[in-house]
């Protein structure tokens, strides 16, 4: 090796060590907050509103120092689930979403609008009548809904509102998913070229989508690994009530901080290195996991995301994963304005 080659090699090695030592740049802000579920599912038996967003939720989040709220919504809250009527919009319900956007602005919380159920796909039952990945009629309806939202919020700065296209795509190839995402993005940008758009990762949000790098989209990952900790006793996860009571670190090859880093951080950092912003759109621990185990696991997740420069959004604010009214049997709750507050979890979240 001549002197010039040696110098180039050592300089590169030094630069690489500096890159390794520092968080990668993340084009998305490190937003931190919660999911609110008022439009998560439609009213029993069909379309219609499930609930109205509460101003107190926005106020309390802001007062505690958070700056982000994700709204996972079902399109069936404002449109019928029948494909023949997919484009019939209920303006009354959509005005309730408008009100949430205004509350975000009022309390300096970024509002991320997500279609948890979109025409043709939902990760939760019941299945949609048509398949978004294969049926052009479903895709046309999905584009229609996002174009409507794009028009509705056109002119509102990206600092205040972003779009998260499809919640947790699963059992779909990357090629099919990329095709659908590109169609949705094209529809949105035909109305509002500047809107900040985020796409969930593949396989329930856990895998980065390299086929979308270079499109200007951010991507959203998840923080539920390992599920033997996060979903112990969850009644919608078959067999989870028979799992061993969780510990952290957990038993098995995926139950350590190093496993989290290897499986849930490093693959996404490869995408981040291509200039794609990363955010953890959902994470949390169900209320059957012992509280101290949940907090220990949560703190390790938070440390990893802080080091990576990623923000996060806990599922949920009020409810079994949240800091309010979570019904954990082993927590001494504090009364907070009529709600039961998990002070330890709140203080942990505020530290990171």
UniProtKB/TrEMBL annotation:
Lineage top rank: taxon: Bacteria
Domain Glycoside hydrolase family: 56-317
Family membership: Belongs to the glycosyl hydrolase 5 (cellulase A) family.
A cellular component term, taken from the record's GO annotations: extracellular region
Protein name (database record): Cellulase family glycosylhydrolase
Keyword Hydrolase (UniProt): yes
Biological processes, Gene Ontology terms: cellulose catabolic process
Keyword Ligase: no
PANTHER family given in the database record: ENDOGLUCANASE, PUTATIVE (AFU_ORTHOLOGUE AFUA_5G01830)-RELATED, GLUCAN ENDO-1,6-BETA-GLUCOSIDASE B
Lineage: Bacteria, Pseudomonadati, Bacteroidota, Cytophagia, Cytophagales
One of the record's GO molecular function terms: beta-glucosidase activity
Pfam family of the protein (one): Cellulase
Organism, scientific name: Rudanella paleaurantiibacter
């Amino acid at each position: 090796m001549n002197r010039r080659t040696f110098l180039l090699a050592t300089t590169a090695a030094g630069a690489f060590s500096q890159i390794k030592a520092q968080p990668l740049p993340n084009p998305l802000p490190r937003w931190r907050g919660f999911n609110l579920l008022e439009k998560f599912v439609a009213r029993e038996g069909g379309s219609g509103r499930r609930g109205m967003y509460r101003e107190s939720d926005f106020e309390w989040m802001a007062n505690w120092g958070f700056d982000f709220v994700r709204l996972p919504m079902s399109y069936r809250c404002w449109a019928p689930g029948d494909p023949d009527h997919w484009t019939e919009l209920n303006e009354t319900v959509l005005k309730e979403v408008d009100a949430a956007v205004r509350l975000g602005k009022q309390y300096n919380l970024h509002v991320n609008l997500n279609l948890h159920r979109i025409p043709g796909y939902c990760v939760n039952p019941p299945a949609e009548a048509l398949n978004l990945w294969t049926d052009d009629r479903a895709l046309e309806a999905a584009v229609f809904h996002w174009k409507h939202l794009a028009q509705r919020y056109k002119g509102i700065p990206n600092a205040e509102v972003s779009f998260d296209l499809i919640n947790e795509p699963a059992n779909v190839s990357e090629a099919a998913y990329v095709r659908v995402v590109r169609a949705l993005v094209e529809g949105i940008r035909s109305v509002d070229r500047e809107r900040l758009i985020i796409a969930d990762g593949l396989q329930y949000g856990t895998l980065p989508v390299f086929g979308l790098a270079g499109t200007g989209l951010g991507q959203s990952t998840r923080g539920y690994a390992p599920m033997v900790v996060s979903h112990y006793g969850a009644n919608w996860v078959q067999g989870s009530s028979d799992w061993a009571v969780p510990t952290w670190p957990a038993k098995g090859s995926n139950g350590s901080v190093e496993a989290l880093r290897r499986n849930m951080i490093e693959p996404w950092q490869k995408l981040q290195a291509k200039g794609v912003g990363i955010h953890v759109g959902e994470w949390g621990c169900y209320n059957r996991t012992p509280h101290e185990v949940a907090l220990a696991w949560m703190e390790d997740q938070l440390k990893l995301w802080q080091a990576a420069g990623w923000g996060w959004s806990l599922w949920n604010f009020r409810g079994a994963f949240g800091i309010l009214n979570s019904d954990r049997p082993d927590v001494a709750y504090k009364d907070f304005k009529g709600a039961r507050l998990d002070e330890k979890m709140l203080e942990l979240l505020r530290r990171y």
